[in-house]
Amino acid sequence: MNQLMHVSKLVFRHDQNKRWLKKPEVFQLGPIDLTVNKGETIAIIGENRAGKSLLAKMLVGAVAADEGEISLSSVRYNAAKRRSTRSYNASNDIRMIFQHSTEAMNPGITVGMILDEPLRLNTRMTEKERRARIEETLIKVGLLRDHVYFYRHMLSDGQQQRVALARALVLQPKILVADEPFAALDPSIRSQTVNQILTLQRELGLSFIFITHNLGVVRHIADKVIVMKNGRIVESGKTETIFRWPQHSMTKKLILAYQSLVPQQKIT
Amino acid sequence: MPMLDIKNLTLEIETAGTRVKALDKVNLTINSGEIRALVGESGSGKSLIVSAISGALPQKFHLTADRMSWKGKSLLSMPTEERRQLMRRDIAVVFQNPGSALDPSATLGEQLEESIPDELVEGKWFWQRRQSRRKSAISTVHKVGIKHHRHYLSAYPHQIPTDISQKFMLAMALISQPKLLIADDPTRGMETTTKTQVLKLLTRLNQTKSLSILFISHDLLAISSMCHSMTVLYCGQTVESGRMKMLRKRPLHPYTKALLDSAPSFQNDLPPKSLLPTLDGTIPSLKHVPIGCRLGPRCPRAQRDCVITPAVRRIHDHTYSCHFPLHMEKL
């Protein structure tokens, strides 16, 4: 089987302690079951505050879960245990691009150092090997070798997005998780980024999980769609099926809202 | 007669001894009862046009225009007081960053009630007037799709999420019942369902109250669903402008075509996972704008003549500025 990742019964609870005359705020994410195959693109859609970003962070291990198990490339991790989470984080098979990817970069250091950091902390490569890997990654995402010496502010929006992509790819992960990768980009830069991701997927066989509000892009690049509401997955399936025959009311709402914007096909 | 008429608007910014043309001969007209879209990527000067119309430009910027008039009256030679009255009553502006455009030291309710003009408040005595203000504030907030008015009207701007503050800016603009609404990216980052709500509201206001709207965005899906006409801006130059239908069917300028191509939803026959057609390169910064047609270095059809700024040409009400337009053989 080319199953790469399997998530079972992942739960996150957020409960603020009850204060004087104030109702406790309770938010529960999950239980979530999810399977990711090799080379697959999964889109997560849903309204605001549905727990999409939280799910992405939990998948990469940035936020610890309260219950559940993740098995990644045939190693099982208990997501609730601290030590297990640490070894999960050290596995390098899953990486993330953050929501405001450009603001998530240190403005004080060069691009080369930004890309060097994950390598230095996670691998035992020598400096020369690291340097070679960084240059290789930069070329892969469509930048030049010289960009190693650049600072964040010297790059344009599209190039910054590419650096964020390079930072995620430098450890050669198998799965890439992205939180709203296209939202802040201009149309022409956005299609460049979409193309970049599509070509990388074809070359490296990456699996790609992304969150977005832009259903047009979802329809174009996703294989599978997950619809979330109030911390739960309410519907999931193949993209075409979801777009043509939405079952759940939430999915219907989203798809209808999107269809009302799209110019209807005319018979000519 | 057009409501707002701008011809050859040029804006120069002085940086380190040299003058940079941030806007270069921009033309824009809005007829009454029309929804016009202004499309352009970041750095194309969309927001500068908004500030130029609303008169919120810093003194250092040099603004020149052949014509810039509101219902026949020139905006440039108008006394400041009159212009302020005009901005208060007839034109309403929704600014780009709703979070930072709101006053952080007052509650949303106070800000909203403050922006109701006096002549729209009913009643003679202060308690009647207060009630009337409150009532119209609540009804406007409901109109833009904010449900829990009691909670949000007594909240401060930092306490509310971005999508609510976006809607709130819209409410503040609409409460004075303007004739022209200038909306600078009102749907940025909104989820699809809320976006359609807002677009429907704007369309309805346009139909029932014949409100003209200048809709500034780069979300072509939203634009094509509601706008009547469109002006495309690239790097401070108006590239193409005309009726929405015409532009969709037969874009003459390569940049308009590239923009339309960038939304995968427009092409029904596009196979999934195929590469999208794009323009190479990135948007040039203001310090390094190319001479002549500013799209030049990125344009697939560029030739030697493109170093000369193309003149504005016109086919019926479709204007464009390009030396080598697309789709000419069909015309």
TrEMBL record, chain A:
SMART domains: AAA. Gene3D superfamilies: P-loop containing nucleotide triphosphate hydrolases (3.40.50.300). It is a peripheral membrane protein. Residues 5-255 form the ABC transporter domain. It is found in: Cell inner membrane. One of its GO terms (molecular function) is ATP binding. SUPFAM superfamilies: P-loop containing nucleoside triphosphate hydrolases. It holds the Pfam family ABC_tran. Its main location: membrane. Belongs to the ABC transporter superfamily. Keywords: ATP-binding, Cell inner membrane, Cell membrane, Membrane, Nucleotide-binding, Transport. This is ATP-binding cassette domain-containing protein.
TrEMBL record, chain B:
Residues 4-260 form the ABC transporter domain. It is found in: Cell inner membrane. One of its GO terms (molecular function) is ATP binding. InterPro entries: AAA+_ATPase (IPR003593), ABC_Ni/Peptide_Import (IPR050388), ABC_transporter-like_ATP-bd (IPR003439), Oligopep_ABC_C (IPR013563), P-loop_NTPase (IPR027417). The keyword Cell inner membrane applies. Keywords: ATP-binding, Cell inner membrane, Cell membrane, Membrane, Nucleotide-binding, Transport. It is a peripheral membrane protein. Gene3D superfamilies: P-loop containing nucleotide triphosphate hydrolases. NCBIfam families: oligo_HPY. Belongs to the ABC transporter superfamily. This is ATP-binding cassette domain-containing protein. It comes from Salinimonas profundi.
